[in-house]
Amino acid sequence: MKKSDILIIGNGISGLFAACVAADKGKKVQILSYGAGTLTIGGGIIDVLGYTDEGTPVADPMQAIAAMDAKHPYAKVGADTAKKALDTFLKITEEEGFPYIGSANENIWLPTAIGNFKPSCLVPRTMNGKALIAAKNILVIGFDTMKDFYADMATKNIAKRLPDKNVEQLIVELKFEYERDLRDISAMDVARWLETEAGYRSFVDQVKSHVKPDTAIVLPPVLGLDPNYKILDTLEKELDCALVEVSSLPPAVTGTRLTKMMTAYAKKRGVQIIEKARVVGSEIIDGKCQAVITEGFDRQRKFYADQFILATGGVYGGGLVAKIGAMTEPVFNIDIDVPKVQTEWSHKDLFGDKKQIFAQFGVNVNSELTPLAADGKEVASNVKVVGRSLAGYDFCVEKSGNGVALITAYKAAAAFCGEA
Amino acid sequence: MAINKHHAIDPDKCTACTICITACPVTAATRKFRGPKMTGPALTRLRKLVSDDDPMLDYCSNCKTCDLVCPSGVPISTLNMLAKNEYYKTHPRKSPADDMLAHSEKMGKLITSIPLASTFANLGMTIGKSVGMLGAMGISSNAKMPSYASESFISKFKKIKQTSYQRKVVFFSGCFINYNQPEVGVDMVKVYQKNKIEVAIDENFVCCGSPMVAGGYIDDARVNAAKNAKLLKAWVDKGYDIITACTSCGLMLKQEYQELFDFEGMSEYAEHMYDSVEYLAKLHDEGEFNTEFANDSTEYIYHAPCHLKVQAIGRPSMELLPLVPGIKIQEADAGCCGISGSYGFKADKNPIAMKVGAKLFGKIKDSHAELGVCECGTCRLQMENGSGVPAIHPLTVLRKAYGL
Ligand SMILES: Cc1cc2nc3c(=O)[nH]c(=O)nc-3n(C[C@H](O)[C@H](O)[C@H](O)COP(=O)(O)OP(=O)(O)OC[C@H]3O[C@@H](n4cnc5c(N)ncnc54)[C@H](O)[C@@H]3O)c2cc1C
């Protein structure tokens, strides 16, 4: 196999972003990936840091990052590089015609599918939570036969959380055929319907008369399947109000859009993506990784590179493999330090707001993101680990998933390109 | 060493994450399909308890996009195919076309063995279409049926004088190349000879069985698999590598046989299997690929077949074709073409197939390319039918570039 400058293992947001950054700096980049990333089931929004360890909301993520516990991935990157990473991401979205809004120094509060609010940092324009706060009237729109979004619950909760607003709800009729031989309707189906001329017209006709002056509409993520704002822009113009998609459950329309955008950007810059390539091991000589090894139904193949970025994610997707009382990272065969007794992996209160112990398991790295073995020695000097594979944070509780992925990916790629 | 096949048919590896639903092209095109997650792993678990009565199964086209995006390695499409085959044991088939489309080799054999039969068969197709006979058989009048060649590839091959080289491969041509587009097979031999490779064929090879599995005739596919597996193993034992130029044959022989059947030698010969362009790309990596090309100023658009994408070999054609001086080639990157072997030829599936392929057709038309390029024969037909732009095999581009 031909040699690349930088080889990235994993096709999630961290692998894709590292590829974009390195390719922009002129490197020959190859991605090996087995399956799509978590992004395609996740929200497509960039949470950077929503809550402190004590559970208080973070106003300025960059300020909070500067004061982070040394074990946290952010502490190994620092606020300056973190900001550069997020600015680079914003620039890429701009260039791809799908600009995100927000700033590294501020959190935005977004409505969730049940009408609660969650903090995030960079979001697509379809999820501009600030428009809700600014409007006098809020119109929650549901679709009569769509599952997974209950407009009445969202309406009640939003009214409770924003008592000074006039919150109303409207159910749009889809008039889809409905019989035993047809499957349930998801947000993706409604998004497809809105992309048709008939669907778009029907939506506008049903909604228009309910929009009072100074209104923001809240609706499930249905404003187009592709990374652009065509539907949002035309609807906002025609209805003369803001539209805000809720952060949603899988299958995720919003995450799919961002995946498409990042993949397109990477490919345009010559990044070669080899799909369905499962990396099962590596060849390390004198402390340097020479190649990684893939395995399929036919044979093993070796992929050589000067530098390697491990972006294989967590237990979901196989980046980390958990067994009873043990956990390993399978590509570089790194033992993860975990309690031998399984009951010590979690707090009793599974869905509490305390960080979970097991959620923080991952690969230990030094300040250069170089992986460390159980004995504290470097696994290979030309390997860096990014994204959910890293130890030391619980993205779910602190709201930092895609932020850690982007920020660590940027640091690794930039460092491999000779930038500190 | 290859993957342990016993991982293969395990629905419990599915974490119900829904990634496959976001990617499935048939799910996007019709609500008649429940989607890969439900039809595959979820219902497979249920089928262990109760017998199946889910007609939605029929809508899976076996394009394998679900397998491509699944991070847990669940063979979703194969679970669907197994369930479909179970279903048809106790349920009537939707149309008489199923049998014919699944057994394309039988048709091909019949037609190419009788002098002038291909002329009449192709004529028959045209007339059949105009008088609605194909419609009565359950074949879409909208699809472009493959036409039959007057002489099979095997017959043509025997007339080719090859130079003998140390590097030897056996070419599994498959039905489409053998009966419908033998010139692709001839191009393969010419291009391989230019690269100092001697090509052998084996007249005892039979249809790989891919259309049989997709059409619900798995028992017939098993018989063919037993024959092919034994022959392929014997070639590998003699020191030959195995080459396919149809990505569905390639996938079937090296992967789906291992998922579906249990014959000796399958993983051993699979180690020596290559797609025809992948093999040349490997030569290129080793510095042994012949790049004495003439100029070619044609504008091409390349479509990667779904069954190539899941082979974890990247895009070998996009590595080699840009080496031809003057060439302009871009990748369409527009997802599945919709045809999925025999799927899009069926009357009830054709509208779905055309909807699935719409993005690709648009891309081809907008590109203003003169020719499409694709490894898969039925994808090429679908590209032509949907966009009006003719499509050729990458080996044909190389053959022309060699000035042959
Ligand atoms: C349901 C859900 C919703 C979420 N919502 C949000 C949200 O709204 N905002 C937010 O900021 N974060 C969210 N997160 C968290 C966020 O999605 C993840 O933290 C982030 O996507 C991790 O990205 P990653 O690139 O590190 O890993 P992943 O996305 O997991 O990517 C890893 C990739 O590597 C591949 N891979 C693994 N092993 C191998 C191997 N051996 N060989 C080759 N390839 C391999 C995997 O198949 C996968 O493609 C959510 C997570 C979930 C599960």
TrEMBL record, chain A:
One of its GO terms (molecular function) is glycerol-3-phosphate dehydrogenase (quinone) activity. It holds the Pfam family FAD_binding_2. GO terms for cellular component: glycerol-3-phosphate dehydrogenase (FAD) complex. Residues 5-404 form the FAD-dependent oxidoreductase 2 FAD-binding domain. It is an enzyme of class 1 (oxidoreductase). InterPro entries: FAD-dep_OxRdtase_2_FAD-bd (IPR003953), FAD/NAD-bd_sf (IPR036188), G3P_DH_GlpB_su (IPR009158). Keywords: Flavoprotein, FMN, Oxidoreductase. It comes from the Bacteria. Its EC number is 1.1.5.3. The keyword Oxidoreductase applies. Gene3D superfamilies: FAD/NAD(P)-binding domain. This is Glycerol-3-phosphate dehydrogenase subunit B. It comes from Pectinatus brassicae.
TrEMBL record, chain B:
It comes from the Bacteria. GO terms for biological process: anaerobic respiration. The keyword Secreted does not apply. InterPro entries: 4Fe4S_Fe-S-bd, 4Fe4S_Fe_S_CS, Cys_rich_dom, G3P_DH_GlpC_su. The keyword Chloroplast does not apply. One of its GO terms (molecular function) is 4 iron, 4 sulfur cluster binding. Its EC number is 1.1.5.3. Pfam families: CCG, Fer4_8. It is an enzyme of class 1 (oxidoreductase). Coiled coil: none annotated. GO terms for cellular component: glycerol-3-phosphate dehydrogenase (FAD) complex; membrane. Residues 5-34, 53-80 form the 4Fe-4S ferredoxin-type domain. Keywords: 4Fe-4S, Iron, Iron-sulfur, Metal-binding, Oxidoreductase, Repeat. NCBIfam families: glycerol3P_GlpC, PRK11168.1. This is Glycerol-3-phosphate dehydrogenase subunit C. It comes from Pectinatus brassicae.
